[in-house]
Specification:
about 200 residues, alpha+beta, four-stranded mixed sheet, about 20% helix
């Protein structure tokens, strides 16, 4: 997995005074986790926004603090946004231990073509867009995919257990949870049933 680096600076302003930081184009950041003291930090908002766009909440980032030689592998734990303007207010990072398995939400996308959807004039509908998995921090995938070509008829259902996971990654989401299936409009479904009945009578 490619490591994304994020340099941060120590922050002296606390509490309500962090508003002054935001006026200066800086976002307050909090870094905490096992084996380290809690850090109050800051980062230029454009830099932080760019990093968040790269890693989301499921990929690690390598954090360095100005004036220190240590590096901390961390994940985004919480982001706070201004509800009206949508400005970034605060980000919490949780340090991860390389040798300890952790859980994460990983985006899930559909790939492939469903012959069943084409045959019955239906649409493949996705029910789950993230899977919860467990793995060592550096083994957590950036995304997962599931092939819809297995959806061959209206009874076919893809479930969480049908997603192929990389080695060392375990599924936490309930294995029987439906991920995707073919759905057709009511009138089209009735027409398909009538056609099947006609073929049986013939």
């Amino acid at each position: 997995m490619e490591k994304v680096s994020l340099p941060l600076s120590s922050r002296s302003l606390q509490g309500k005074k962090v508003r002054l930081l935001r006026k200066q184009g800086l976002t307050p950041v909090h870094l905490y986790g096992p084996g380290i003291d809690s850090y109050s930090l800051e980062c230029p908002t454009p830099v932080l926004m760019g990093i968040l766009g790269q890693i989301g909440t499921h990929s690690p980032v390598l954090i360095t603090v100005d004036g220190e030689g240590d590096e901390y592998l961390a994940f985004v734990r919480e982001t706070q946004w201004e509800p009206v303007r949508g400005d970034l207010l605060h980000v919490d990072f949780l340090r991860a231990e390389l040798t300890r398995r952790m859980t994460a939400e990983v985006p899930l996308s559909l790939v492939g073509e469903s012959a069943g959807a084409a045959e019955f004039g239906g649409t493949v509908v996705q029910y789950i867009y993230n899977l919860e998995v467990e793995a060592l921090p550096l083994d957590i995938p950036a995304q997962l995919e599931i092939d819809t070509s297995a959806l061959t008829d209206l009874e076919s259902v893809l479930r969480a257990r049908d997603v192929t996971l990389p080695e060392g990654v375990s599924l936490i989401t309930a294995s029987g949870d439906p991920v995707a299936r073919i759905e057709v409009a009511k009138e089209e479904e009735e027409a398909a049933e009538e056609e099947e009945v006609g073929e049986e009578d013939g």
